[in-house]
Amino acid sequence: MAQLRDWIAKHPHIRLCRTDARFLLRFLRAKKHSFLGASQVLERYLAARAIHPSWFQRLDIRDPELANLADIGFLYALKERTADGCLVTLCDWGLLDPRRYTVDHSNRMHALLVEAYGDDVLFQCAGVVAIFDLQHIQLAHHSLISLSVLRQVAQYMNNALPIRCKAIYAVNIPSAALWIVNGLIGFFNEKIRNRCCLFRDYDELAEKFDRNLLPKEYGGKEPKSEHMQAFREQCERYRDRLLQMDEMEIDLDHNESYSRHAMLDDIEGGAVGSFRKLDLD
């Protein structure tokens, strides 16, 4: 950690960055305490924050747009963790009103969740399982999504996300939304792609995932409202720290691999991956 702090202090392009232990351990633990791996992810993490301010700035649960998305249950973390200690998140992506919101709002809400739990030791060590319920996706949502956007999201997850992604599960996928799922997974690197699974419904998901962890509405024990409230409390608890992160800064006008040009153009793993095909009505 001392080596990483010294590296930040002498970095030619990092102008301001957190150097407290909890923050730096995100990157070290995500890369199994490899200094080289942690430093590379940190550079790309800071670059992503600078390139996509609409995703990473003002991560405030009191912001009217984020508060509304939290109120309707668009995204939240479940109260209980898996037997391995993984945090579980549930996103009902179709609840994103295409008349009011864009993909940027979705990405910003996910950034809020990641940052709200980012300093948690168990989250850093055990990682996260992300569940996406796509049952409410309609044709209007297709206008919000393009392959370019999917590539940018995948690039961030491939190269700049300082967490251990243990699994990504998609449930209740309408046939018209399969191109979105296939497109995104196709841009993931092989490691993340191999951790993606698709399920027809929650009954099929229960064959792989402990259903008791889910909200009561999906076969679990506690009502969805209680999971949502616990998530809001977590965001509120770390609100000041999240807002202070907007002060971090990195210069991107150079020729390094984390430059603005490189981050916008380079995608690790561009071929469409293979995963279990579903025949959906």
TrEMBL record:
It comes from the Eukaryota. The keyword Plastid does not apply. GO terms for cellular component: membrane. One of its GO terms (molecular function) is phosphatidylinositol bisphosphate binding. Residues 62-226 form the CRAL-TRIO domain. Gene3D superfamilies: Alpha-tocopherol transfer, CRAL-TRIO lipid binding domain, N-terminal domain of phosphatidylinositol transfer protein sec14p. Keywords: Membrane, Transmembrane, Transmembrane helix. The keyword Cytoplasm does not apply. The chain crosses the membrane at residues 167-188. InterPro entries: CRAL-TRIO_dom, CRAL-TRIO_dom_sf, CRAL/TRIO_N_dom, CRAL/TRIO_N_dom_sf. This is CRAL-TRIO domain-containing protein. It comes from Anopheles culicifacies.
